[in-house]
UniProtKB/TrEMBL annotation:
<dbReference type="GO" id="GO:0006574">
    <property type="term" value="P:L-valine catabolic process"/>
</dbReference>
<feature type="domain" description="6-phosphogluconate dehydrogenase NADP-binding">
    <location>
        <begin position="4"/>
        <end position="166"/>
    </location>
</feature>
<protein>
    <recommendedName>
        <fullName>3-hydroxyisobutyrate dehydrogenase</fullName>
        <ecNumber>1.1.1.31</ecNumber>
    </recommendedName>
</protein>
<dbReference type="InterPro" id="IPR036291">
    <property type="entry name" value="NAD(P)-bd_dom_sf"/>
</dbReference>
<dbReference type="InterPro" id="IPR029154">
    <property type="entry name" value="HIBADH-like_NADP-bd"/>
</dbReference>
<dbReference type="InterPro" id="IPR011548">
    <property type="entry name" value="HIBADH"/>
</dbReference>
<keyword id="KW-0560">Oxidoreductase</keyword>
<comment type="pathway">
    <text>Amino-acid degradation; L-valine degradation.</text>
</comment>
<feature type="domain" description="3-hydroxyisobutyrate dehydrogenase-like NAD-binding">
    <location>
        <begin position="169"/>
        <end position="294"/>
    </location>
</feature>
<dbReference type="InterPro" id="IPR015815">
    <property type="entry name" value="HIBADH-related"/>
</dbReference>
<dbReference type="GO" id="GO:0051287">
    <property type="term" value="F:NAD binding"/>
</dbReference>
<dbReference type="InterPro" id="IPR002204">
    <property type="entry name" value="3-OH-isobutyrate_DH-rel_CS"/>
</dbReference>
<dbReference type="InterPro" id="IPR013328">
    <property type="entry name" value="6PGD_dom2"/>
</dbReference>
<feature type="active site">
    <location>
        <position position="175"/>
    </location>
</feature>
<dbReference type="InterPro" id="IPR006115">
    <property type="entry name" value="6PGDH_NADP-bd"/>
</dbReference>
<keyword id="KW-0520">NAD</keyword>
<dbReference type="Pfam" id="PF14833">
    <property type="entry name" value="NAD_binding_11"/>
</dbReference>
Amino acid sequence: SNPKISFIGLGNMGAPMALNLLKAGMQVCVFDLMPQAVAKLVEQGASGAASVLEVVKDADVVISMLPAGKHVEALYLGSEQHGGLISVLAKNCLVIDSSTIDAATAQKVGKALATQGLRFIDAPVSGGVGGATAGTLTFIVGGEQQDYQDALPVLQLMGKNIFHAGALGAGQVAKICNNMLLSVLMVGTSEALQLAIDNGLDPKVVSDIMLQSSGRNWTLELYNPCPDVMPNVPSSKAYQGGFMVDLMKKDLGLAMDTAVKSQSSTPMGSLAQSLYAMHSLQGNGQLDFSSIFSMFSKHSNK
Ligand code: NAD
């Protein structure tokens, strides 16, 4: 029979992910600190819980989708306010944390749960709210092979591409490597487009040229940062929706922390982090991350 799933954290990402589990006919019990978020999912067929202890009752699988590492650690290992799920989950329960957090916290939580016979994988996602809604997320998993195998059928109901990156924490490392590279591509594409505009070129024409040349990259293919080059992307909708500057800033902070720990050299990532931090300070934290383009266009003479 189908596993009983508990879903904790029903924000921008968690709510549509939980909904896809329901649509697939799964039994899902949900919890969020915001009662409205729980009520919405209950309307769509979930059973709702009034507390975090209630939501995990009889759970075979627990999925969490929370903002940051401190929330994940407090949920599972406990905080001053409450004891963690570590002391209430049934033996052999499979815990899937899909939040984007630091690898060290993922490893700490996973190791602690293992001492109680509980299984944990880190499974951060790529694909944004659009991917969460469409059920086409990419899951990047760190943990034991057997736990990855057991999680697959559930992850496949919410995502399309599911990777096993390596041991505990490896999912988080792979995820922030990707986002660091993405930020570098976004900044580089933005300055190149503005350079072309400043020299009298049409950004649409130069985008087409670069797409068929060696500067081709994901941002030019699917997410052009210059307004009105592409329809239906955040840059053509006043940078609304999409992936927030402040979330990119958070991921770059995680990437830089990781680089310090492993003594890796990441000059491009470090520069991108500074630029995104400045962009956020200038009041753009809630805009889509492609709005970094305006940092170049505003200071241009054209
Ligand atoms: P969000 O802020 O919209 O949602 C987080 C939810 O968690 C909120 O509803 C909040 O009330 C709830 N919450 C916090 N602490 C809780 C607790 N102790 N118990 C129960 N509920 C709790 O965030 P989001 O956009 O859904 O992102 C979640 C995670 O996914 C983040 O780590 C983010 O970096 C990552 N992520 C987001 C995107 C995106 O495009 N939004 C894409 C990929 C990954």
